[in-house]
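SEQUENCE-TO-STRUCTURE ENTRY
===========================

Backbone structure tokens: a row of integers, each naming the local backbone shape at its residue.

Task: work out the structure tokens from the sequence, keeping to the layout shown below.
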Amino acid sequence: MEQRSSLQRFNQVLLGFLLFFGLLYLGRSFLIPVAIGGLFAMLLVPICQRLEKWKLSRAAAALICVFAVVIILLGLISVLITQIFALANDLPELGKMLTAKLDQARTFASDKFNLSREKQNEYVQNQLEGATQMAGSYIRSILLSTSSFLLNFVVVITYTLLFLIYRRRLRNFILKLVRDREGSYAQSIVNKITGVASSYISGVFLVVVILATVNTLGLLVIGIEHALFFGLLAGLLNIIPYIGSLAGSLIPVIFALLTKESLWYPVGVAIFFLVVQQIESYILTPNITGSKIKLSAMATLMVLLLGSMIWGVAGMILFVPYLGILKVVFDNIEKLQPYGYILGNEEEAEPKQIPAKIAPEGDFD
């Protein structure tokens, strides 16, 4: 009987997970703008609170914050579009340089490995066709995501504004759900979650701003053209853990390899980004966001892949910060603290050792 009860409980949990992630997938067109609006709202809560202390109404403070965000986003988008057009003007020259590099590579392969140019051309043609198809699918995906984001931009801003205006009602809604069981303790948990989540999201954006500035200045010093575009792109891509930082560094390295005669330029760019990534990993992120939420690399990578499967690029960006917020919830509710522990990387004292005579074999540490 007990075994049947455990099996039923497991089936219920498994069915709950399937329904939850199935709803996330099916409702992605509705949930993604809500999730983005929630992140912006959490980012702007401290600014709204400060404006409200200056005797502004909640609606007026929310409008000012949202208007400032719109201005900043439009400015950032205009800079990126300008840089993209400037880069597009250099594409014919880049094509000539790429042809010259390929010709040098073919000559080297012919001299060193006795490969005929016909075989090389056939191999290169096959690889280019595959790369072109793959690049086309990625470009279509990015364009669709961009156009979808632009179409939903007004919706996202509206959600942000409404979340800021009705944040007290949303908090009271949560308190009403648990008031009879948890009492005033629930209010302290909600307040702590709100503060920590806001600090974490603002810290993530601060890291992006610092990295974009440092990347741009570093590429300018090295002498890479379109340094502003590559610096901003690398900073923005850093929102996606691991994958974003790698992609953001590879793009300028490849550009330097194509546009510069000397190999010292791509090597210098690679070394520069390697140093910046180490500084970000061991100094910036631990001191700016790490003091608020500490996610393990295992949990981050798993939720990154899960977000990619469910919401695509948007999931890779959104799932990680929301996992961090979920960890705050787990850490502040006693029954859920084991889940917060498995998601985090906090150092903790080793548990007491089990005596050897009763220790199970093959213990998983």
